[in-house]
Amino acid sequence: MRKETSTNALNEKMMIDSCGMSSSLAVIGGRWKPAILCRLSYGTMRYGELKKDIIGISERMLVAQLRELEKDQIITRVVFPEVPPRVEYRLTDLGRTMKPMLDAMSDWGNMYRKHINQTQDLSATVLQDK
Amino acid sequence: MRKETSTNALNEKMMIDSCGMSSSLAVIGGRWKPAILCRLSYGTMRYGELKKDIIGISERMLVAQLRELEKDQIITRVVFPEVPPRVEYRLTDLGRTMKPMLDAMSDWGNMYRKHINQTQDLSATVLQDK
DNA sequence: CCGTATCCGATGAGATACTG
DNA sequence: CAGTATCTCATCGGATACGG
């Protein structure tokens, strides 16, 4: 970034050069984490609510992604010793610091989709800016 | 955004709920695209420069990622009809609109890594904010 | 209600050798 | 110089059945 001295042959260097983006992607990447984070950013949710709300996710994947986010200290899992059992998930303080990043990604993604749809509609099969 | 559409027609709803994040991740996600985008955000680069600079990437993956970014209209590939051949890659106007998002991701990722390293150093085996 | 366990196909990604 | 072509293995993600 500042200078590209490629004398260091470590992948660690590559990650530093990638400006922390790789670290962010390691936490929020994957198919389902955006959906989970987007929902929890609005507040606490129960397991069943997440499962019902995120259309198409399997229980296996939901649990796996929640466990990863918990391990990464982005969310917390609160178990209520009741019958029937109840488990709530919420963002940690660290998780809430993601908001500017999530907003930026959401904004650009929406803009990008509109742009792609427009160019597709206008030029149909022809890509004239290539 | 690209490849999920075939299996489940309801995924469209999920992606809208995910606030465009999925669209962004479809474009910038993956192991090598952060490294490529980060470098091209500083200006034009030749194929060989990218290959030399991004430690550990195989030619196969470099070409594949560049082709995807080109298809997504994020970068352009400029071929100079010279001997020896020369090919330059640069961001498109659309690609340059990613900067706020890339910066936000970079900033959060760097902050996150510092945070994780600190809590590891300080609390060792104990996680007290759980 | 809130998960695990198991199986399996699709995709991502690395190594190596070759080419216009 | 700037790529292709194959082969291979690891990981991601889906379906289904079962467990506390």
UniProtKB/TrEMBL annotation, chains A, B:
Transmembrane segments: none annotated. Keywords: DNA-binding, Transcription, Transcription regulation. Pfam families: HxlR. PROSITE patterns: HTH_HXLR. The keyword Methyltransferase does not apply. Gene3D superfamilies: Winged helix-like DNA-binding domain superfamily/Winged helix DNA-binding domain. Residues 19-117 form the HTH hxlR-type domain. This is Winged helix-turn-helix transcriptional regulator.
